[in-house]
Amino acid sequence: MRRHIKIFSSLMAVLMFMLPIASCSSDVSKVRISAPEQSAVISMSWWGNDPRHEYTLQGLSLFQENNPDIIVNHSYGIWNGYERRYLMQMASHNNCDVMQINYAWLSEYSSDGMGYYDINQLSEYIDLSQFSQEDLATGMRNGHLNALPIAYNTICMFYNADMFASYGLDIPMTWDDLFEAADVMSRDDIYVLGMVNKHLFLLLNAWFEQTTGRTLFDDEGTYIGTTEDISMILEFYKELTDRRVIMPLYNFNVSDLEDGRVAGTVCWASDSLRYCQPAIDDGMNVVIGEYLRISLDDQSEWYIKPATMYAISIDCRDPEACGRLVNYLLNDPEFAILQGTEKGIPVSAAARQALIDNGLLGGIEYEAGEFISDNIANMNLINPMLENADFLDIFKNLSDMYIYDEATLEETAAQIQRELMALAG
Question: Are residues 361 and 415 in the same domain?
Fold first, then answer.
């Protein structure tokens, strides 16, 4: 789907949560043994870094204090490997009742709208008026409201403005600007940009669409690219690598901007604190660049998505308790203050107002959020297949053969095409 978004406690209680469970079970009776008979027992899962775990655990403790009839078990971890485990849990109907999900999972696990609970049925417990119709539409599948957005996200280009100024360079606006910067900075063994595989592919895809006016996937997520399309992308990728515009993926570390090994980085707006704050704390002037274009007259649109979303299991045993928890996580001012902008600028009007009232909207994450707001009218919802893990693995693993001269362009493009067509099945 391509569409425009118009926009856009106690200490003991906390300690009780500090040991995450390995998986979630829909069999609530198994955990009622240690719970008061009148209590509803539900479970929640999420991924993230240590700060996210800490404030979420604290928030769950506060939620239980204010809702003594609900007990919340939990499962959490880092992103690496999380999606694979989630797939197994979904397949076995062993997923948690309330889940932080990736936007792409709506298409992968609920294309017919029946993979998650219809939140429309819980409007008595979840204040949906805090979201615009455009916000709600991001979680709709086949007439079912499968999920609610926490914040919006897009990849952003963050640059060390001081470094560019030291070379007499402006912040890049076009793809050619990247190469001009690399011609100068590479003499000092500095790369213009550093990023991970997913962000690289989104960047390559943006260049491809701007250059050709074509897409690799149709609106339903079916792969429609050709061998020639893959060759074209690979050639541009190799040029970026050979001319030292981008740091090799296997070398990149999130600390490279702070260490001065790269002059800029590409990451999700929601990850701006992790990627950029250390450099800012060291006194660097980190700025957000405009979206790269073929030319300054190019009006091509970039992609946006809900950063993360909350969904409820189709197998949940207590929808009311789940709805009350989701409403707390999204709309409660107390939790909004705990979370701040760690996941991005909240979509919920109530949560956003709580941050404004408490002076908590500021810094690089806020700037990234404002950047999204300023550009959202000219963005499309991302095609979920552009983030598909299997697709990205095929492209990364096979493209390396060409990038590092282990296979010809023709051989590599043909093999990638075969495997992508097989994946599309």
Answer: no
pLDDT digits (tens, 9 = 90+) for 192-209: 999 999 999 999 999 999
CA distance 360 to 394: 41
CA 39, 130, 155: angle at the middle one, nearest 5? 105
User: Is the model's pTM score more than 0.70?
Assistant: yes
Domain shared by 263 and 279, yes or no: yes
112 occurs within a structural domain: yes
Is the CA virtual torsion 166, 167, 168, 170 positive or negative? negative
The beta-carbon contacts of 412-416 under 8 Å, at least 24 apart in sequence, are 412/234, 413/227, 413/228, 413/230, 413/231, 413/234, 414/227, 416/230, 416/234
User: Which residue segment(s) compose the domain that 274 sits in?
Assistant: 155-303+381-424
Which CATH number is 23's domain given? 3.40.190.10
Cβ proximity of 230 and 413 under 8 Å = yes
- Residue 300 backbone phi and psi in degrees, to 5: -60, 145
Which tokens in the block code for residue 217? Answer: 């996937």
Q: How far apart are CA 84 and CA 91, in angstroms?
A: 11
| Residue 345 sits in the same domain as residue 297 | no
**Does residue 135 sit in the same domain as residue 159?**
no
Contact 327/126 with Cβ under 8 angstroms? Answer: yes
DSSP label at residue 303: E
Token pair recorded at residue 117: 């609970």
Place of tokens 């274009």: 293
Residues 313 and 283 in one domain: no
* Contact (CB, 8 A) for 296 and 223: no
Instruction: Dump pLDDT digits (tens) for 313-366.
Output: 999 999 999 999 999 999 999 999 999 988 888 999 999 999 999 999 888 988
Interstrand relation of 40-47 and 70-77 (parallel, antiparallel or unpaired): parallel
> For the sheet containing 286-289, what is the strand order?
191-194, 262-268, 155-160, 286-289
What pLDDT, in 10s, does the model give residues 143-201? 999 999 999 999 999 999 999 999 999 999 999 999 999 999 999 999 999 999 999 99
Per-residue pLDDT tens digits for 84-128: 888 888 888 889 999 999 998 998 899 899 999 999 999 999 999
* 110 and 25 within one domain: yes
Same domain, 124 and 63: yes
Number of domains composing the chain: 2
Establish how many alpha carbons lie within 13 A of residue 157's alpha carbon, considering only the half-sphere containing its beta carbon. Answer: 22
**Of 155, 187, 154, nearest in space to 169 by CA:** 187
Asked whether residue 269 falls in the same domain as residue 325, the answer is no
Spatial neighbors of 221 by CB under 8 A, at least 6 apart, are 107, 383, 384, 385
